[in-house]
Each structure stands twice: as structure tokens, then as C-alpha cells.
Amino acid sequence: MSVWVIADQRKGTLRKPALETLSEGRRLADQLGTSMEAVIAGHNVEGLCNEIASYGAEKVYLIDHEILANYNPPAYARAVGDLIKDKQPQIVLMGGTMTGRDLMPRIAARVGAGLAPDCIKLEIVDGKLKAIRPAIAGKVRVEIGYKSDIQMAILRPNVFERLEPDTSKTANIEKVPFEPSDLDTKQRLVEFVSKETGRPELTEAEIIVSGGRGMKAPENFALVEELADLLGAAVGASRAAVDAGWRPQSDQVGQTGKTVSPNLYIAVGISGAIQHLAGMSSSKFIVAINKDPDAPIFNVADFGVVGDLFKVVPLLTEEIKKIKAQEG
Amino acid sequence: MKVVVFCKSVPDTETRVRLKDNRLDKSEIKYILNPYDEFAVEEAVRMKEAGKVDEVVAVSMGPERAREALRSALAIGADRAILIKDDALDGSDTYVTAKVLVKALEKDGVEYGMLLFGQQAIDGDTWHVPGQVAEMLGLPQAGSIIKLEVDPDAGKAVANRLVEGGEEVHEMALPCVVTCRKGLNEPRYPSLPNIMKAKRKPVQDYSLADLGLSPEEVGRAGSFTEVLSYSLPPKKEAGRKVEGEPEEVVQELVKFLKDEIKVL
Ligand SMILES: Cc1cc2nc3c(=O)[nH]c(=O)nc-3n(C[C@H](O)[C@H](O)[C@H](O)COP(=O)(O)OP(=O)(O)OC[C@H]3O[C@@H](n4cnc5c(N)ncnc54)[C@H](O)[C@@H]3O)c2cc1C
Ligand SMILES: Nc1ncnc2c1ncn2[C@@H]1O[C@H](COP(=O)(O)O)[C@@H](O)[C@H]1O
User: Fold this and answer.
1) What CATH number does the domain located at B2-222 have?
2) pTM for the whole thing?
3) Does A275 reach chain B within 8 Å, measured CB to CB?
4) Cys-Cys with A49: which of A13, A171, A202, A323 at CB 3.0–4.6 Å?
5) pLDDT in tens, A222-244
6) CATH class of A3-186
7) Interface pTM (ipTM) of the complex?
């Protein structure tokens, strides 16, 4: 009856949401007085097991096979799902990466277990998991209870606290044999088209600077990018900026874009339509720069600047540069 | 090749949410076809227009109002629709929903080459149902796609998933499952003649009994999860709003960033 975490890796690196999920798994296991164990599927990923152990996993199930080298939904679901059926952990968690959100429903269907997505808080009540999550574009908050013996949840990235790893720990590894089925060979990742910008991923970023229609033209996003790079931030956009062709689809924040929960979200020239707020209102701090004092974004902003972004943003960038220079 | 598109009726994106007795107050909600499902219907209809698909079937599980969502799909260009409607289905979680949708496909007998879903329904925002259906049927699956190329003669599809830092390109044997999102296409506004034509397209109704399911297997009774309570998210306290000379407001903003939230 332990707590399990499916440790998400890509190209041999553990994803940041996986570390947050391991930390939360440890916390829940302590509360239940049980063990925390992890599963990792992939190829040549044994080297990650010690890092997993450093976040408190007492055991790591390692499923290593060539066909698992890249994400393969049927193969991953069968590999991990059948292990869950065999070992019957009480709780199974995974971080809400694009892999986690895609894979967990398949595993839940295979195992026959309840699943709650996009959780922002987990509790143990009467020995069972209770999941708390936003729904209807963040307009309500719901509590999910489980009737299945196995209780599964996907954790929203950037919300759960990451523990300090204890690097003195080494993993207790159990290797799990795996043979591909016919179905597993019916799907194959043939290519990864990298669109790396050198900036953090939106869903994992501590700080995001987003631009909207107020930016007026694609070249003006240089202002947003310069500020973002100074802060080590990701760059986001409103739907209006994406639909105008100024920014790629992957930058869009909101109901039909990405849901983000950074420590700081800076909205530049964004009005704050309900569909935009749906994707960013759970940010810890929100700063808005907008020339319209009645823009709805000010209703959610912790700090609002009413002013012309073309004056405010360059000045802000200059000031931050000065501070960074002083710090050396 | 025939394809099936799954359509959910959801509250309009502008809807203000009210609670009554710890449940959603549905009395003043306006319902629409889930925006993510529009991308799926549009993609299916484009495949038909390109001569790759000869029938597009729209399927929805939901109360009577779901018929409207199906009409929207038919107006975009789906050929026929299936509505699964039964009072006992109220309170079904995503696992039960997937189970019921699979039963409806069996009952209809449609020989599909592809199942198209929206990435997520914007009410529950779960992203669950497509993967659950794919697993129950033993099919390959590409979620959150922004590009799709299908070759029915070769029996395969190539789909680009939008993921962190780039795109995963997956090749799948047909039949397969895809989930659609913004970036895949630009859904059309149905023309008036097509809206009129949609009213005459066939919609098949199924009850639970038609699908050979009992009330205990569905709804709250058959579900693994249940919503224990609804609440409104904590209200944010109104923040500060500063106006004035850019030099001055920027000084205040810097102070906020540096001293109050300590990001500098
Ligand atoms: C089904 C559906 C889904 C949607 N999904 C999303 C989504 O995922 N994400 C999303 O963002 N939107 C979404 N939308 C669109 C949303 O309704 C808004 O249209 C969009 O967010 C507006 O973008 P914007 O704020 O950049 O543009 P606008 O609303 O035009 O706002 C521009 C703002 O810039 C300010 N401004 C202009 N010039 C300056 C200047 N020089 N200095 C300072 N401020 C300036 C203006 O005062 C204004 O407030 C969706 C809509 C629908 C119907
Ligand atoms: N009741 C339903 N009827 C038909 N399709 C559904 C239903 N619920 C979910 N779907 C499909 O599954 C997708 C994902 O929904 P969800 O898992 O609820 O976020 C939707 O975009 C639809 O394509």
C-alpha cells in the first residue's frame, strides 16, 4: 500500500515536474506512514535512479527497453499499468507534463482506477486521497474523492514545492522485464522537431513576460524578450498576438493555450479577457502594464502600471540592468 | 475510410459560474460545442473534402442540450450523429464516459479508420476521455496535435504533437486516436444553407438499454471518482494600481519587484 510516482524523463533527463511530484509523493507517504516508490520507463535511464532516490524514493522500478526510448503511449501504458496491477500501490502520481497528461488516462483505464488531473493540492482524508483542482477554466474549485482502491492524480507543474535532494542516498533498483506487444509497434516517434529558444518552458518557468495586442507589431516583442532574458523568464502571448501571427502557437497562454502558474506573471499590453485569465490567474504574483485604466487585467494584478508600454518597458529594463550591474 | 468525432456540449467560455447548494447552478448557462472539438470536426471534414474520408460521424454523450452541439458539428460538415442520452448517466466520471462511448461505437458498428477528439473539454478540463477510449480499444494515440497527415491506402497517419520545447512527430497505424487543439486548423463558420441542411441530417438516439448497460455501471454508481464539493476560488485582494510619470511608476514597480516579492 505505498505511494508511487511515475518519474517522467525525456532524453535521459528527469523533468522538473517529476521532481515536484516525487517531493509531494514523499510528503503523502510520510503522512500515511508508508513507503514512497518510483517507476521509470525508458532506455538507458538507469543513471537517473540515484537522482530519484535523492528525492526520497525507497525503491525504483526500472523498466528499460529500446521501444521505450521515446514516448510511446500504448507501450508506456502497458509497461507501467501492468506493474501497477501487479503491485497494487494505493496512490499513483505523475507530473502534468505533456507526457503525464497524455499517459495517465491510458494507465487509469488499463488499471481501472480513478484519476484526477491538474491537481493543485492533495490531502489524505480517512486514509484515502482527496484531490483539489480548478475546473471550468479556473472559475470553480472542486474536491475529488475516490471510490477505487488505487487512487491516481496528475499534478499541475510549478505548484508543489520541491524538496532539497539528499544526494547521499542511492537507489534500491528493481528491474522489471518488458516485451513489446503488437500494439506497441503500431506507433513510433519518428522525429523530435526542436523549437528550443534557450528560455525556460512556459509551464515550468518561475517568471513569465507575456505580450498582447498592445505590442502592435511582431518586432516590438524584442522589448518583451529583452526584459524576459534579463529576468531569466519565459515569453508568453495572448491569443490576439498569436492569431495575428506575431508569436508561435506554443507561446499562447489561456483557455485554448497553456495553463501557467509562475511565481511572477508580467502582462504587457494584454487586456485580461476571461479566456486569458483562465490560463494565468493562478500565478502567485501578477504585474500588468496597460494604458487603459479600466482593463480587466487590473482586477487580478497585484501591481498595475497604467501607462504606455513603449515608455514603461524600456525604462523598467534599464532599471533592472542597473540593479544587476550593481550586484555584479 | 470512415471517421468518428467526439463532441461535448460545454458552458460558453464567457459563462459566469454560480453555485447553489454546493453544486453548479446550471440555470443560466449558455452551452456551446466544446471549442477543442471544433478543431476535431473541422479536421475530419477537411479530410472528407480532400477525398480521404467518406463518412464523418459525430458522437456525443449528454443530456438533450447535447443535440445542439451535434447540430453544430453537422453544420460544419459531419454526415450523421449519435446522441447517447439517459438520466442514469448523470454524474459519470471520465472512465464511465469512455466506457459508454466505446459501447456506442460497438452498437453502431461503424468501421472507423480514425477517432478524433478535442484535447480537452473546457468544463472538466480533464484531457482524460481520449486516452481512456484509446486504451479500452487498444489503439495508438497522438494527443494535442497541430499537424496531421493521413494516408488511408497505406493505413497510416503522421501527427505532430505540441510538447514542451518542440514537436513530437508520431507515426501510427490506422485505426488510431488523435486529440486536436488550436494550431491544427481554423474552424469555419458554418454557412446558413449548411445550418439548414444540418437540421435534416440523421441523429440516432441511444439509451443505456440500447447499449446493453445497466444503471449501476454508469453515473455516480459506476464511477471511480466523484466531485465531493464545489467552491469558488479564493478571491484575490485588489492590488495596487499606479499612474503617473513613467520614471516614477517604474521606480515603484522596481521597488515592488525587489523588496516585496524579491524577484530581483
Ligand atoms: C473560445 C475562445 C478561446 C480563447 N482562448 C484564449 C486563450 O487561450 N488565450 C487568450 O489570451 N485569449 C483567448 N481568447 C481570446 C480572448 O477573448 C481575447 O480576445 C484575447 O485574450 C485578447 O488579447 P489581448 O489582450 O492581447 O488583446 P486586446 O483585448 O486587444 O488587448 C490589448 C490591450 O493592450 C492595451 N494597449 C494597447 N496599446 C498599449 C500601449 N501602447 N501601452 C500599454 N497598453 C496598451 C490596451 O489597452 C488593451 O487592454 C479566446 C476566445 C475564445 C472565444
Ligand atoms: N460526454 C462526451 N461526449 C462525447 N465526447 C466527449 C464527452 N466527454 C468528453 N468527450 C471527448 O473527449 C475530449 C476530452 O474531454 P475531457 O477528457 O472531458 O477533457 C473532448 O474534447 C471530446 O472530444
Assistant:
1) 3.40.50.620
2) 0.97
3) yes
4) A171
5) 999 999 999 999 999 999 999 99
6) alpha beta
7) 0.97
